[in-house]
């Protein structure tokens, strides 16, 4: 099912994809709207996840209009690619055989892309040990 959905989107690498989920965090605030989209892609192997990571990075950088500024995000991810421009921030992270992709718009300082990236890595790592990341 995940692979068929992936193939219709033609956005990610679908080889070895076992699960895909996307969710969005949206809130209205006095400083503007906050809008973050998260996509998690689980692969059957680290090798397929590495290919998936490359595809996610390519997709993230595909529609860049201005020269984005690279972001350094200190996480325990195996691979990280992140950038920001005047309006958007984006990151792709690989933790083992899972790739997390995040896009954010008008993020406040207390909920910026690095904090969301760290949260995703922590949740992926917790789930990989067989524990519920929501517990």
Largest sheet: 6 strands, antiparallel
| Arithmetic mean pLDDT | 82
Main-sheet strand order equals 1-2-6-5-4-3
Topology order in helix (H) and strand (E) letters:
HEEHEEEEH
Structural class: alpha+beta
Query: Unreliable stretches, pLDDT < 50, 5 or more residues?
Result: none
Terminal Cα separation, in Å? 28 Å
**Overall body shape:** globular
Which bin fits the share of residues in helices?
25-40%
Which band does the percent of strand residues land in?
35-45%
Total helical elements = 3
- The count of strands amounts to 6
Characteristics of this structure?
single chain, 135 residues, alpha+beta, six-stranded antiparallel sheet, 36% strand
Description:
The protein is of the alpha+beta class. It has three helices and six strands. It has a six-stranded antiparallel sheet, with helices on both faces. A hairpin with a 2-residue loop joins strand 1 (17-29) and strand 2. The protein is globular. The two termini are 28 Å apart. The mean pLDDT is 82.
In short:
This protein has 3 helices and 6 strands; from the N terminus they run αββαββββα.
Question: Any chance you could write out the topology, listing elements then pairs?
Answer:
Layout lengths: L1 H8 L7 E13 L2 E12 L2 H16 L7 E2 L8 E6 L3 E8 L2 E8 L7 H16 L7
Antiparallel strand pairs: 1-2, 2-6, 3-4, 4-5, 5-6
């Amino acid at each position: 099912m995940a692979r068929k959905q992936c193939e219709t989107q033609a956005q990610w690498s679908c080889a070895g994809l076992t699960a895909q989920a996307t969710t969005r965090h949206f809130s209205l605030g006095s400083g503007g709207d906050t809008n973050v989209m998260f996509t998690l892609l689980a692969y059957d192997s680290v090798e397929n996840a590495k290919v998936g990571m490359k595809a996610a990075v390519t997709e993230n950088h595909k529609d860049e209009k201005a020269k984005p500024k690279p972001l350094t995000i200190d996480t325990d991810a195996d691979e990280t690619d992140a950038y920001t421009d005047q309006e958007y921030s984006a990151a792709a992270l690989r933790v083992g055989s899972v790739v997390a992709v995040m896009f954010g718009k008008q993020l406040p300082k207390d909920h910026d892309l690095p904090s969301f990236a760290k949260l995703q890595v922590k949740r992926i790592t917790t789930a990989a040990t067989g524990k519920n990341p929501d517990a």
